[in-house]
Design brief:
Among the domains are: 87 residues, 3-Layer(aba) Sandwich (Rossmann fold); 192 residues, 3-Layer(aba) Sandwich (Rossmann fold); 89 residues, Rossmann fold (3-Layer(aba) Sandwich); 109 residues, 3-Layer(aba) Sandwich (Rossmann fold), CATH 3.40.50.10190. It has 30 helices and 24 strands. A 4-stranded parallel β-sheet has the order 2-1-3-4. Helix 11 packs across helix 13, helix 15 packs antiparallel against helix 18 and helix 22 runs parallel beside helix 26. The radius of gyration is 29 Å and the shape is globular.
Length: 844
């Protein structure tokens, strides 16, 4: 078992859960977990479903908000912070504030630690207040953690000291904060950096390089165009334990539908035909009974572009994160009909995205501009179109107007100052695609009510979403940034030229009652640990007390999945190839009458013809079973008996619902199957079915193995829960090498490692790791790289070369016995103990 938390320490009373992602790997989680335990904290184990027990957590460590329990964490006001929070807490020997470490991109200053230099006191207060409201921290003193100094010149002692000590902080003009506040987006600091800020050196009309747009990958169109480049060696795991329904209104051919279905199944998911059974519903339009029911029940609803994005990037993201990942309105949005909109100064994916967004909203996009155009969307105020628009009295706005109007499901007033704000040396294409959809607005407009038809799960999700939305407003998410601007003198000086010397007075005094720093670095105001926030959290938890009971009751009585489907490999390019070939045959769904599509949605696929055998609703992967040893005829007869009871015995390479074994055994089949997170039962269940001729209660046959649990240091329930949380990514992208001469051969170890997401390679003595210096690796400590080996002399000769290769690649070589891999996969936890090293074994 994992070590018990130490009594006392920095993280005493902290119950911390981790969310694994590509940015926060299992290797990092293992290292941080050890640090937390050493400092008195507790690492929360996942529950039976592999979920974080949200009500019991004090902190959730995640580098992204793209995990399915983020809304629930927000509802319970549980802080979600990036892993840097742990580093800073340990460095300062006290718990750091959580607000600066939010992974939510809407907290645009969440990574900013600011100190002000020669800024007037009133402006300093205004900047600090706005920074804190949007996730940053203001400190009186300059420290090594400081990321930004707000200054008018380099003469202030803070600037002098920062340059003298080569601190990695940026010295920016206050104009940068002003422009960020006006837009509600964080733009690049480059043009505002001292000593030679571009906004003072160049004229606004001089050319600005068109930037690449962050956040638009796979989200520029409702129907993905591809083709996509994919890493064929990466295991597809995003669909693990998910049930997906593909709507009949998707613009795909039957053959492409089958291809997509195969990818989902091979990726560990299941394709279903009933809305009530699915977790994710994929459709084209925001209408029809299936869309409404799926939305009211709290299912994840996205479109084909979203589904392709999941396949290509192999990581979950909410369809609410990107405007064109959510089903579009069939006839556009109210108020956009009759608008003729053109675009200027946007390039690449940003331009294509805005074109598609205009069309999805129901307006007409025009490539060129004429006097009958109604709107010009531009990233800067300088172009021929902008000059013509002024002459023709055409409305000029930035892209935020069309994005936020689309999210609001109606045209927003053009008088909002943020839509007419254009920083002089910035192309706003760099902040395209950062607007989220609002679930409250979508519900009110497209699927209101429905409480009377909701099941308990849907009702509970609805309560959680409502509370999460209220708490989001409390912590500054989805706030109207213009409240700050309209009360500010800055709102009255938008036409002031930036070529003049920097002036102050662009910020208003903060509202009375705002927490103000007393100058102590470690006591920055407005954090989750402030008394006001603690009070708000207590109030939220109090209101959710009955909700916690609902959660517990629901989990107790929730119907278990009957057809868990597992296995898979990475592939999206095959989908694209078939789509390109069959593009001309793709149905024009958007041109069909609405009632025809609704009828199509209501149709269920034809049921399979009835057979004499019942449907196999229980598929068992069986290992270590002795009854059939050497008796093929008996095995065949018994399999027929089981099949008559709706039970099918399958291999670990195909979908299965249960893993059956006599005990916790370290066989290849057991460990490969365990990585899928199935229900684990005793093989006595199979014997009982055969001998009794009927299916007993499977819950009575859950695997219990006290000796095995003591031997491996883990209960089977905990191992399964961890496997469900890991979703096949326990060893995700970890390089694991193996010698060819290892006892029992490398094939079994390869299957086990790959089932858990590792990159498995045979090592024959040739270098395969690129030499890297610590500086090239960003100064990060070396990560471990493993070589599974036996004790033969031929294998020992490879050890020095492996160590040399790893060290040159800035990695820590670990030459281990195979037991390390088997124990890690049995416990479904990446841990380390030097006793697995061969050099320590040989000393004994």
């Amino acid at each position: 078992m994992a070590d018990e938390p130490h009594k006392g320490g920095l993280f005493e009373n902290c119950k911390i859960a981790f969310v694994q992602s590509k940015a926060l790997t299992s290797v990092a989680i293992s290292q941080y977990s050890s640090l937390i335990r050493e400092n008195g904290g507790e690492i929360l184990e996942p529950d039976r479903r592999g979920k974080i027990p949200i009500p019991g957590a004090t902190h959730i460590i995640s580098d992204t908000i793209d995990f399915d329990q983020y809304t629930e964490a927000l509802a319970f006001m549980i802080p979600v912070v990036r892993h840097e929070w742990i580093n800073l807490s340990i460095a300062r020997h006290r718990l750091a504030q959580v607000r600066p470490f939010s992974p939510d991109p809407r907290m645009i200053f969440s990574s900013v630690i600011l100190t002000c230099a020669d800024i007037p006191e009133m402006d300093k207060e205004s900047i600090a207040g706005a920074i804190i409201a949007l996730g940053g921290v203001e400190s009186k003193d300059l420290t090594r953690q400081t990321t930004h100094i707000c200054a008018l010149s380099l003469d202030h002692p803070k600037c002098v000291e920062a340059r003298k000590k080569n601190l990695k902080c940026k010295i920016v003009l206050p104009h940068w904060f002003d422009d960020c506040f006006r837009l509600g987006k964080r733009i690049d600091e480059g043009p505002y950096l001292l000593p030679d800020p571009e906004i003072l050196r160049k004229a606004p009309e001089e050319a600005v390089k068109i930037p690449s747009s962050q956040g638009l990958d796979g989200a520029v169109s409702v129907v993905p165009q591809g083709p996509y480049n994919t890493d064929g060696g990466e295991k597809l795991v995003v669909f693990e334990q998910r049930k997906v329904m593909l709507s009949r209104d998707l613009p795909i051919t039957p053959q492409l539908r089958k291809t997509i279905t195969d990818k989902i199944i091979r990726g560990g998911g299941q394709v279903v035909d009933d809305v009530d059974d699915c977790d994710w519903f994929v459709c084209q339009f925001r209408d029809g009974p299936q869309y409404i029911r799926a939305s009211q029940q709290g299912k994840e609803v996205g479109n084909l572009a979203w589904l392709y994005h999941l396949i290509v990037y192999n990581e979950y993201t909410s369809p609410m994160r990107r405007l064109l990942h959510y089903p579009i309105p069939r006839d556009g949005l109210p108020g956009f009909k009759g608008m003729r909109i053109t675009i200027s100064n946007y390039g690449g994916d940003a331009r294509i995205y805005l074109e598609n967004l205009i069309k999805a909203a129901g307006a007409e996009y025009t490539k060129s501009m004429k006097s009958d155009n109604t709107h010009l969307i531009t990233a800067r105020l300088h172009s021929e179109k902008c000059e013509a628009a002024k002459d023709w009295n055409i409305e000029i706005v930035n892209h935020l107007w069309i994005e936020e109007s689309y999210a609001a499901c109606e045209p927003l007033p053009l008088t909002n100052p943020k839509y007419q704000h254009f920083p002089p040396r910035t192309n706003l294409g760099e902040v395209v695609g950062q607007t989220f959809l609002n679930p409250v607005v979508l519900r009110q407009r497209y699927f209101p009510g429905g409480e009377e038809t909701m099941n308990e799960e849907a009702k509970m999700k609805h309560k959680v979403n409502e509370r999460a939305q209220k708490n989001a407003l409390k912590v500054g998410l989805d706030r109207d940034f213009n409240v700050m601007q309209e009360s500010s003198p800055a709102g009255q000086s938008t036409k002031k030229t930036r070529r003049s010397a920097p002036t102050t007075g662009a910020f208003s005094t903060p509202a009375k009652g705002r927490h103000v720093s007393d100058g102590k670095e470690n006591e920055t105001p407005s954090t989750m640990f402030s008394s006001a926030s603690r009070s708000a959290k207590a109030q939220a938890l109090s209101k959710l007390h009955d909700l916690s009971a609902d959660i517990a009751l629901y989990e107790k009585e929730k119907k278990r999945t009957k057809d868990g489907i597992f296995g898979g490999k990475r592939a999206a390019d095959q989908i694209e190839k078939e789509r390109v070939v069959e593009n001309t045959a793709s149905p024009a769904s958007d041109k069909r009458p609405r009632e025809d599509v609704d009828d199509m949605q209501d149709k269920r696929p034809a049921k399979r013809a009835k057979t004499s055998l019942p449907e196999a609703d229980m598929r068992i992967c069986l290992t270590g079973y002795k009854r059939w040893a050497g008796d093929k005829s008996s095995e065949e007869a018994d399999r027929k008996k089981l099949r008559a009871l709706g039970i099918q015995i399958v291999q670990d390479t195909v979908p299965f619902t249960h893993l059956a074994a006599p005990s916790m055994i370290r066989t290849q089949k057991f460990l490969v199957a365990l990585a899928k997170g199935p229900d684990v039962i005793s093989s006595d269940f199979v014997t009982a079915c055969i001998e009794k001729g009927k299916r007993p209660n499977v819950d009575d046959y859950r695997l219990r193995d006290k000796a095995g649990e003591e031997k491996f240091g883990i209960t089977i329930e905990t191992a399964v829960a961890r496997a469900r949380a890991n979703r096949g990514r326990l060893l995700f992208k970890m390089p694991i090498y193996c010698t060819e001469k290892i006892p029992n051969g490398p094939q079994a170890f390869e299957a086990i490692a790959k089932a858990n997401g590792a990159i498995f390679m045979l090592y024959r003595g040739r270098p395969t790791i690129k030499p890297t210096t610590p500086e090239e690796d960003g100064g990060a400590p070396p990560e471990p790289v493993y070589l599974l080996s036996g004790p033969s002399e031929a294998e020992k000769q490879l050890w020095p070369r492996f160590e040399e290769m790893a060290i040159k690649g800035h990695m820590e070589p670990r030459i281990v016995v195979a037991d390390w891999l088997l124990d890690v996969c049995m416990r479904q936890e990446l841990f380390w103990d030097p006793r697995y090293l061969w050099k320590n074994r040989e000393k004994k």
